[in-house]
Specification:
Blueprint lengths: L7 E18 L5 E21 L4 E3 L12 H8 L9 E7 L10 H16 L6 H11 L3 H6 L3 E4 L4 E4 L6 E7 L5 H6 L25 H7 L1 H10 L5 E3 L6 E5 L2 H10 L4 E9 L3 H5 L3
């Protein structure tokens, strides 16, 4: 258990979808999918400070995001019914992950708030209970609540923890926005990819079923992906717009990072099997 008497800071990690198969569409409009969530050792940093006033205060709102839509605040409010502490909370965020990139920034932020406030507010909820609350905030929140690199199915909530060898990833993002809703509602999205077992997984034998459609709709994503493929195995993550390349050698990744075309932001990260947030919170 962490002592929250002083301000406390937690890394809110990014994730990659190493593959994304759309296996069908459910009656409620959601999609049955399979994916492999790879957690990274890079992300946003969220600060927590207990305050005397029984309120939730975000010290630095995220530009372009209304408080009503802010997942940090939504997560904090979701724990109010379980709160056993008289204190309120002051939240802050050092935002490094691009929004709308498909690397889980908002979902990770929500999960980190759930995990930290469960301790700070003495909510005494189990990880299973937090994951159930998180699923109501977003389909990708549970994987960050559970804090393990995982093979996923269903709408992304049926998670099987897996151990992957350590690889280095270059994650690059063009200045564009991809609407997840528009992609999943598009008639040209493939929806009949056969299911696989994790034991049959290989990067080369899988794909991102959203990648061709997004590339047709957005030339910036298509151009970046083609550029990265010249240097290493590369793929779009989630519904984009971020694209990742896989390297065995960190120095090689750093060299390509320096070569990224104008207008492309990027970072280098290592894949991890356990979330940095869980380590910080002694979970």
């Amino acid at each position: 258990m962490i002592n929250f008497d002083a301000p406390f800071y937690v890394l809110s990690p990014a994730k990659l979808n190493l593959f994304l198969h759309i296996c069908g569409r459910l009656e409620n409009g959601y999609h049955h999918l399979q994916t492999l969530f790879q957690l990274l050792d890079y992300g946003d940093t969220i600060g927590f400070k207990l305050i005397e006033a029984p309120k939730i205060h975000l010290l630095n709102p995220i530009a372009g995001v209304n408080n009503a839509d802010n997942l940090l605040l939504k997560a904090a409010n979701a724990l109010l019914p379980y709160k056993n502490s008289p204190f309120g909370i002051e939240l802050s965020i050092d935002k490094r992950l691009p929004m709308g990139g498909g690397i889980g920034g908002g979902s990770s932020n929500a999960a980190t708030v759930l995990l930290a406030l469960n301790q700070a507010w003495e909510c005494r909820l189990s990880i299973d209970e937090l994951a159930e609350i998180g699923l109501k905030l977003g389909a990708d929140v549970p994987v960050f609540v559970r804090g393990r690199t995982a093979f996923a199915s269903g709408v992304g909530e049926a998670l099987t923890p897996v151990e992957l060898s350590t690889r280095t990833y270059l994650v690059a993002t063009p200045k564009t926005h991809i609407s997840t809703q528009a992609i999943f509602n598009h008639p040209d999205l493939p929806r009949n990819t056969p299911e696989i077992a994790f034991s049959d997984y290989s990067f080369e034998q899988t794909r991102n079923d959203c990648e061709i459609l997004v590339s047709k709709m957005d030339s910036k994503v298509a151009n970046l992906l083609q550029w990265l493929l010249n240097y290493a195995p590369s793929r779009m993550t989630g519904t984009g717009a971020s694209v990742f390349a896989i390297f065995d050698n960190e120095d090689d990744a750093k060299q390509i990072l320096k070569l990224l075309p104008d207008g492309i932001s990027g970072f280098i990260a290592k894949g991890v099997n356990y979330s940095s947030a869980h380590k910080s919170l002694d979970l």
